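User: quick one, fold this
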Amino acid sequence: MSVALRLRIALLLAALAAVVSLGGCTHRNPHYDRDKAHHTPEGFTNTDTTAVQAGRYPWYEILWRRLRGDFSPATPPAGGYEAFAKAWSQPVDRELVTRMHENPLVTWLGHATLLLQLGGLNILIDPQFSMYAGPNAWLGAERHVPPPYPVEDLPKIDLVLISHNHYDHLDVDTLDRLFASGQHPRILVPLGLKAWFEKNGYAGRIEVVEMDWWDRLAVGPLAIHFTPAQHWSKRTPFDANRSLWGGFMVEWPARDWRFLYTGDTGYSKDFREIRTRLGQVDFLAVPVGSYEPRDFMRPHHANPDDAVRIAKDLGAKQAMGVHWGTFGLTQEPFDQPPRDIAAALAAHRLPASYVWLLKHGESRELR
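Assistant:
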């Protein structure tokens, strides 16, 4: 990131902080339930209330960290970004993904975006197909590996799952293109996020369903559960933790088969509780990127060792890594997660094949 760009960001953040400090207003959580520990009168919190949430850091610390480069890769991957994109991408098998699938098929579309196909349904998770993740191009994180598939070419989407409101998971341009292409999926979102869809003009055009932690929704042969994660939410300087965050379990009761997408998360006891309540996970999608520097990222972004521990807590039979190798969000180089995953698996005495790292655009059948 250039010095000029960092200066522009610093000035913007300072101005926003001044506005926030002068606001002095309070927000009441319309969903507040005093019997639920993760609810607060102002919004939501983690199961572990001692975990520092990045949305609550003082503005001057965020400004300092941004200026020193905490939120961009310290170095390019070996050979540069173009070589990395070539090595870690492949064309989507269009004939494969346009078929109806009874048995599960997963396709990685970059970062945290997944296409999960099973039981005759197509589920799109955290769709982000833009060339940056942020409120605009100059303030957003740059995408270094292009989307492997146009939004407009996706098969009929039955469900869209949104884990939280961060820009690398909830992207306006992607949603606009999806709906403009004639798609009308049902969208499942965390509690408190439906208001964002209404504010942005989606009301009446699509069905948006809010879910709290442990809520269950039947969809055809499947059951969708919204599960806890250790993270936070924020989309503007004024809305820290006013909407919930989490992951999604897609359960196929007739087959006794369970898929879990954790959403963004740090390591926590939540995953042992998920296994206790909902059962052992057959296939897991867990974040393995955006984890440096650890003094800042540890509470809310798992590193590869955390990801392996999460998989073990869930009893996952197979896992895949997501949330890496696409956007320049944090300090670790793009080619660091594969090395750290290999080291973590060796340390836990697990086979290298236990955590898949798919190429952008790659599909795998889940048996």
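User: anything notable?
Assistant: The two ends are 43 Å apart (CA to CA).
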